[in-house]
Amino acid sequence: MTAGTAPRRRAGQGRTPWLIAPLAAVAVAYVALPFAALLQRAPWTDLDDLVGQPVVTDALRLSITTALAATAVSLVIGVPLAWVLARGHLPGRSATRALITLPMVLPPVVGGAALLFAFGRRGLLGGPVYESTGLLLPYSVWGVVAANTFVAMPFLVLTVESGLRAADQRYEDAAATLGASRWTILRRVTLPHAGPSIVAGAVLCWARALGEFGATVTFAGNLQGRTQTMPLAVFLALESDRDAAIALSLVLMAVSLAVLLPLRDRWLTG
Amino acid sequence: MLLADIHLDLGHLHLEIGLRVDDGEVVALLGPNGAGKTTALRAVAGLHPIDDGRIELDGAVLDDPAADTFVPTSKRPIGVVFQDYLLFPRLSALDNVAFGLRARGRTRAQARAEAQRWLVRLGLDELAGARPRTLSGGQAQRVALARALATEPRLLLLDEPLAALDAGTRLRVRTELRRHLATFHGARLLVTHDPVDALVLADRLVILEEGRMTQTGTPAEVTARPGSRYVAQLVGVNLLHGRATGERTVRLDSGAELTVADPLPGPEVAVAIRPQAIALHAHQPDGSPRNTWTATVDDLEADRDRVRVTLGHRVPVTAEITPAALAELDLAAGAPVWASVKAVDLTVYER
Asked: Structural domains in chain A?
């Protein structure tokens, strides 16, 4: 009898507390149900034709490329910013962090409007640039990239910053004693150690950019083939052609899952 | 040769150290945790600039705040074996050793070939492709040593090189380390809180307590004549302070008097007594020992085949006796006992 109780108690310690499992199930159901409804309403028979429409293929190509471009821009300027936030000794770091987090909190429409006032034809920076070069950011593909970057970069910056903070800086000391320059240390020690957080940050950034709506529509408009990304196309289609809207949504879901699923276990979890 | 005059204000600790390590010499900086040992080592490596003083290696000034001279870590000819070794986890053992050579401008092929020779020299050639996390503590330490030596530094610093090892492998690795250290011809500075590591590995000890050097000397000198209670405790020797009251009589701070064999060296003296030299008796002993006193037993502690008896009252010392002697004496905490020590067993030196 005593021999039987010991393993049972051991198994019991590993069990989930009783309220946790049902609540977690509610959370899963809450997220899964809308997607199930979407699948249930999907016009499966006409799906091929719907997805083949130029409005869908244009929007899909634009969404994927602009999200990638926004991620690339965010990596180039966001990783250095993360380094400064994590390691720099500059005054006003907290204020900078709050500022960079602002686009995550504000409605994207506000961001889009702010972008217009900065980079629009009569904007703070956009005005002089337009007058001297004729270049205009809004209502162009680059406007979409700009709007995406504005909204999505904070996800990358905050993720990489926490990754850099968690890294053991003594490895950098060790590299310095071996004669490595600051640049070598950054390239061969710091960045490899922060690698998982950079990948995770880039994926989050890309996913956020892919779904961006408010800032894009405000700053870049809704021109098919130029600035009409998937979310914009879905919104427009909902008014006119519900089946097309569902088809667009399914494509967006498939693309997102195809990226998130393989990365999830490897990079996004501890 | 390293000459380091280090003044550093750490807020909670003020570090003041004057160190000299000659080529071919192994100096151990020994002290309790928080004494400032690792900070001193980091200052020498350039990882912690000093506030005041001067650090000089082979005549070249590395750090001199008054002259506004500071050579950055990467430009100092100093190899460091860190506590926990800090091998780069994503690089193989070979690439860890090659890292410093690469950083100093060798091509990848040159660096690897040279690193391979270092691995062979330290008996690690079979582990060249191994990742650090698959190495045992002793192996990791040797890779760290190879990595530090590969850049051919003029000075080798070791921060608690044995602290990461379990007790079972420590003895063997310590012996190995001693052998490998002997093949390096520059100056070597070792930081440890373990007296055994210091005694086995070092030619000279520097005792650091609360940021200050309290004693320096060869292991034999330090163990025979501990300069502070910390050192006495570390090497397991009783240390008593007193004043000369006759040519061969010392009055302890507690008021008890001890008679020593030779004339006293000065008015203020320290007396070191090995615990094994103190005999315990159930009744007043007769015969030769001139130093006899009654004591109370404060504590009893078994240590393998010996029993350490802490005595209170008048002469606060610890005696070491056999379990058989303990049984014969029928000792218990609080019990009275007679203690004696021969005059020739007292080491007396000036404070």
From this structure: 45-268 (1.10.3720.10)
